[in-house]
């Protein structure tokens, strides 16, 4: 069988692509956000509706700090400079992108309070409370939504565009309820857990920038990483990912930065 010159070229390109995929190495980034100083005490939210179920007051969910100083709900995502192309995700993310993300109403608060979602990923807005709620979500790149979710109900949705910063979620029936929704095209993002820890799995080996964010100050412009102060007006943390585990250790954020401005 005769192989044409074009066929040889296509085979060569295919071989290069296969070798490139096989040569790609990956690293997992971990760390922990901790508060530097005494955590501020936020006033409780006054409840003005459905007091018999919600109670007279609820804790303000904007700042959650564990007993040993871990900061919950610090978000980070892969940052790209203008003109840069996002790296091809690790194959493990293909199935994860199909798994629905659940945002629930529990005890008159959103659970989770801050959540990361991929563009096109299924989202289930759920109501586990015995009273009606609605989800009002406002962004810049996605059309706004304002949907009633009855008791035991679920509203399914997908966001079709990346948002530069987290979107606001709220309940028109219960005005103290609020949450944040991060919508990104790249799966390389994380939200810190109750103890302040975070994990971003299978980043391509190399240099990357992560944008760090918290609800109270917005972008975290100052932090201490490994004993070194990092300052950046965009809240960027530059890291070098090596194959295997990459532990950034404690990332300290000054308590003053997490104190709401009056």
Automatic annotation (TrEMBL):
InterPro entries: CarboxyPept-like_regulatory (IPR008969), Cupredoxin (IPR008972). The keyword Signal applies. Keywords: Signal. Residues 1-23 form the signal peptide. The keyword Signal applies. This is Rhamnogalacturonan lyase domain-containing protein.
């Amino acid at each position: 069988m005769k192989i044409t010159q074009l066929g040889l070229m296509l085979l060569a390109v295919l071989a290069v692509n296969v070798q490139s995929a096989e040569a790609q190495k990956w690293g997992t980034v971990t760390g922990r956000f901790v508060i530097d100083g005494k955590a501020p005490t936020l006033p409780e939210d006054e409840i003005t509706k459905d007091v018999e179920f919600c109670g007279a007051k609820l804790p303000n969910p904007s700042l959650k700090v564990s007993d040993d100083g871990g900061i919950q709900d610090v978000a980070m995502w892969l940052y790209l400079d203008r003109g840069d192309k996002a790296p091809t995700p690790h194959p493990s993310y293909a199935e994860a992108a199909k798994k629905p993300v659940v945002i629930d109403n529990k005890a008159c608060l959103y659970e989770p309070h801050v959540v990361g979602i991929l563009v096109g990923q299924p989202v289930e807005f759920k109501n586990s409370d015995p009273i009606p709620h609605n989800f009002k979500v406002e962004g810049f790149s996605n059309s706004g939504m304002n949907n009633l979710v009855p008791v035991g109900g679920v509203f399914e949705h997908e966001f079709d565009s990346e948002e530069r910063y987290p979107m606001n979620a709220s309940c028109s029936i219960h005005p103290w309820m609020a949450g944040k929704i991060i919508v990104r095209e790249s799966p390389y993002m994380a939200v810190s857990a109750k103890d302040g820890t975070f994990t971003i799995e299978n980043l391509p080996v190399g240099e990357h920038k992560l944008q760090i964010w918290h609800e109270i100050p917005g972008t975290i412009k100052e932090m201490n990483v490994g004993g070194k102060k990092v300052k950046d007006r965009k809240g960027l943390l530059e890291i070098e990912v090596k194959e295997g585990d990459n532990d950034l250790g404690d990332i300290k954020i000054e308590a003053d930065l997490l104190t709401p401005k009056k």
